[in-house]
Task: structure prediction
Amino acid sequence: MDTAKLEFFRGTLDVLILKALAWGPLHGYAITNLLRRQSDDALLLEEGTLYPALWRLENRGSLDAEWGLSGNNRRAKFYRLTPQGRRQLRHEVRTWEAYAGAVAKVLGATQPPLSKEIA
Amino acid sequence: MTPTPIWRRYARLFGPDPAADVKDELRFHLQAKIDDLVTQGWSPESARQEAARQFGDLRALQQIGVRIGEKMERGKRLKDHWNDSLQDVRYTFRTLSRDPGFAATSILILALAIGANIAVFSVVNALLLRPLPFPDSRELVWIAPPPTGCGLSCATYSADAYEEFRAQSRAYQDVTGYEAFTTPDNFRLTGRGEPEPATGIEVIGNFFQVLGVQPAMGRLFTADEARGGPQPVTLLGNAYWRRQFNADPAIVGQAIELNGTPITVVGVLPESFDFGAIFSPGAKVDLFTPLDLKLEHDWGNIVTLLARLKPGVTVTQALDDANRVAPNIYFNTKYPETLGRYKGNLIPVPLKDYVTGKLRRSLIALWCAVGAILLIAGVNLSNLLLARAVARAKEFAVRGALGASRGRIVRQLLMESLALSSAGAALGLGLALLLIAWLSHQGSVALPLLGTLRIDGQALGWTVLVAISTAMIFGLLPGLRIASGNLQEMLKDSGSGAGLARKHEPLRAALVIFEVALACVLLVSAGLLLRSFVKVLDVDLGFQPGRAASIQVEYDDSAPTNDARRGKRGEIFQQIITRVSAIPGVEAAGICDFLPLGPNRSWDAPVPKGRTAVPGELPEPLVYVITPGFIHAMGIRLHGRDFTWTDGPHSDAVVLINASAARFYWPGEDAVGKILMRGKEEDRIVGVVDDVHEENVEGATGSQIYYPATQQQPDWAQLVVRTSMQPASLAASVLHALRALNPKQPAAEFRPIQTIVDRAVSPRRFFMLLVAAFAGLGLLLAALGIYGVISYSVTQQSQAIGIRMALGASVGHVQRQVLVRTLRLAVAGMVLGTLVALAVARLISSLLFSTLSWDLPTYFGMALALLLVAAISGYIPARRASAVNPMEVLRSY
Result:
């Protein structure tokens, strides 16, 4: 599968960003790196997608931003989860797991359902 | 993440910059990627190209970032503002609750002033601003001749004139009117136990349609009923229906008995329609019957006219139309010579102007008075806030030193005055509700639309407006004053803030002078109105209202011929008067058809014998048909003789005339014994009576003529009884005597004549009382203001006073000094106030009655009252000043 073309499902991006920040404050570049490494290079996040999502989350109050210094002493904007963001993360993880489980069940089916039940 | 070094913190020294933030953030990302690529072995140049390629459209991304950033910044600013405000509110409540005395005083002062303003606004709104309670009420016009001296008969029109005017006019959708010569209690409701009096009015059939009044139940009159109809019908007023018939809905379609005749109730009028409130203030009308114009053609002027203009037609156009029509109108179509009698006498004015136009000036004066009250209260608030602000100077200095901006401190002070004025407005609204409830039930005050008084959305809007503007104007002054001070100086200042207080003293003194001047203007105005009212009460009415009372008498004089009727009527009246005069305590009794200060009428002008008169040259005197004894019972002075029972249908025709008529007919001569010609009939004048105020108390009087009831036809019978006791105590025995003679006599109201006079002067009394109350309030507030300033400065100067006393100043000396200071403020205010009052008094001179706008006693009275109040409000702090213990003061150093 061509990893670069792996599309993000609608709504998945937010939960991934929130999850990435669950470990501590990060700047945008670090978030892309973290997601790439944790997905074993499967998820490649484009800047054009990441930053609008970050700003949107900040505006909504899920994230807080602060300027700080990066590892190589450059000024960078660090994002951090707010309590509201943490709540959102918990909620979206649950939704995602339920969704993924349901999809997996359907796709993993080995025999058709009884005709009576779907009629 | 390492914290930002200190120098980096100033990157956004000049406020947030979302665009730069986005740029920085994206540049960092790009740089980080290039660094990574270089570490992976790319050459710096190709790494840069690769990173840029991966990044895509940088500019579009930046734009998105800037947009979101700006939105966020706006939200943040709003939130900060909100938080600050919340903090201010919390702080305000804390500081105010720390000083409950100050808060309570200010709220009370503001409540009184704002309450008065709301109440007066509601009155002005009900009477002046709000349209009349009819649909499209601006189209309604009242049509009347210019005012003349011959009373209601010259202000009304004949049935023929009405019909021709209606047919020929082109300006109106429709024209209507009602019978103007109605007296209270002209009907009696019978067939339901004891006969009960009722007031009915005859209206032209289309009356309610023209006004746009829909019945609450049943229907209005049909065209057929308006022309006499198959059976008599009536419409009930809502209040009467509730009172007399317990709001019984089954009454519609039933017959009730009026004056012994069954009459069908076709409908009940809505609660919103109150005939009395609009057309006859201070009197109630119970029921309505259609006026059959056919029967009225020979009755002369009997109807008042009102009409509804066609949409888009102006009152001026209607006047032109009326002037075009007037020459073609007959007084009575049977007599061609009466053509054109109404030339120049058909003048339409907006109905609203007719109803409330006369009150405009009084209401505006009242509005100004409460405005002045609000100013005084506001100045007081300002002064109190200023005093407090000075006392809190240190607090502000500390807050300033800790970083609060001046704007923030001003805002804090504004918030405090807003909290105070809001609380004051809430309490004031309560006071206004009470006042309005009381006013709207003053049924005896002859003011129109008083019953429609209520606190509505507009009044609430006015309240909010008044509260906010008061807070803004009077909170801003001390706020700016404090904020303009030097914070460091305040911090350095010793605890008492004495230096600062001295700095504000001229401002505070100016404010006090201003409010004393306003109070002075109010007092002068109220004084002038009070003087006018006293003068009105002193007017020689021509009769003695005290200890006299009247009751409507029911009688049946039906007989085949006029002479027989006169004879029968004479007997009935003589019996009644003999019987009533026998009641212990009755000094005199007599009957008249129209009482003074009520409706009236006139007949054709009589001519002195031997003179030929051009029509219109002689006055048309107001006509009264009376019995012997009436002149005495009313307390009217008489020169010559009264009528006697021997002046009967067959004896010589006799009349009494009033002094004005006598002077007009025979100037410089005694009129007694002279002859007046009534057509071809001769009337001998047997006596001349004093002029009676027939139409109003304040106006001039015209000609009046009295005929004996045994020789002319009275319209009704009002029995007047003069007594040596309280008139009310006779009510039962008089009614008993009348019932003994005529069981059909209804339990009509036994009205002291004084109430008629009271009702006539009630609008003046009403305005005078309100203005006087406001002046009293203004005086009280000004006194509080003086007290506040003097008392405060005494507290501030207690050290200096103590030292002076230690150096030998006597108690009297210290007191005198404080008092002199007080009086200096008061006198300065009075001088300023008197100058303004002179100008204001000229503006209200049309509201005064035989009182000059520079009436000296009023000005002296005002000066005395103000000086006295100022002296009292200065004496209290003066006493406190002299009670300063010099030893304590010295020890405190």
Remarks:
- Residues 146-345 of chain B form one domain.
- Residues 493 and 499 of chain B are 7 Å apart (CA to CA).
